[in-house]
Predict the structure of AA9 family lytic polysaccharide monooxygenase.
Amino acid sequence: MARICFLFACAVFFRLTTAHGGVSNYTVGSTWYRGYSPEETPEAQVGQPWLINRPWAAIEPIYDPMSLAITCNSPGTPATSSIPIRAGQNISAIYYYWLHNVGPVVAWMASCNGPCSSPSFNASNADWFKIGQKGLLSGTIVEGMWFQHEFQDWSGAPNVWTETIPKDLKPGEYLIRHEIIALHIANQPQWYPECAHLKVSGKGKKVPGKKFLAKLPGAYSLSQPEIGIDIYSDEWYNRTTYNIPGPPVWNGE
Ligand SMILES: *[C@@H]1O[C@H](CO)[C@@H](O)[C@H](O)[C@H]1NC(C)=O
Ligand SMILES: *[C@@H]1O[C@H](CO)[C@@H](O)[C@H](O)[C@H]1NC(C)=O
Ligand SMILES: *[C@@H]1O[C@H](CO)[C@@H](O)[C@H](O)[C@H]1NC(C)=O
Ligand SMILES: *[C@@H]1O[C@H](CO)[C@@H](O)[C@H](O)[C@H]1NC(C)=O
């Protein structure tokens, strides 16, 4: 941060980040689902019949990719309700005033093998698969345009990140996990994950094969060159490609 902004700008940014550091809402078609808000008390949200988001207590990043918090943030306990969606439909994650510029965003899903709110379902043991990811869109690592920068809308309008539920996905209850990885600080990647419960309907019969699956924690480590990265180094600064680590995206084939 110190490298990319002056004192005043940082102060403004800091105030804004303390207001919003993750998914605020989800939309499916024209329906809005409110997310968990770290700004409001847990008592007002946890256990409420409308809660579709796993609670995340703070806007702070997670620095350790092996931490259990990487799964669904912290506390990441089950939601009460779920977002109904048909396989093949789009879901959008809505952010406000997202301020970091560098690093990939990845949307993951995992079957809950039954109700996502069941105490016997452990999301840190689930088989996660990617349904979409967006990284460096143009230019170079440091000065180019990443999706996490491009989607920002500083007018107060929502920052919209849309992905499609694979159209042949087998119906059932799933978690969806939106993750932003911020790489603007050398050798100190930051993760911002949030999970929501989905009830997927449809006539699909497919599930992703083994090569598409990963554990969270497990998919990332600081020894991966794209994760333990100093973007300002001679090695990376002017590169025009960045491979997003983890398994390939499953498009339902
Ligand atoms: C978006 O979610 C926030 C909480 O994160 C909530 O206060 C707000 O009402 C939601 N907006 C809509 C349109 O659902
Ligand atoms: C779903 O999202 C994709 C990719 O963002 C977009 O091309 C498509 O038009 C969207 N479909 C609908 C029905 O909004
Ligand atoms: C969930 O799974 C993780 C990873 O295997 C394990 O470390 C953790 O203790 C489990 N949590 C519970 C509540 O069983
Ligand atoms: C990146 O490219 C610019 C323009 O070609 C050059 O001036 C600069 O020294 C390069 N930076 C690094 C770290 O290689």
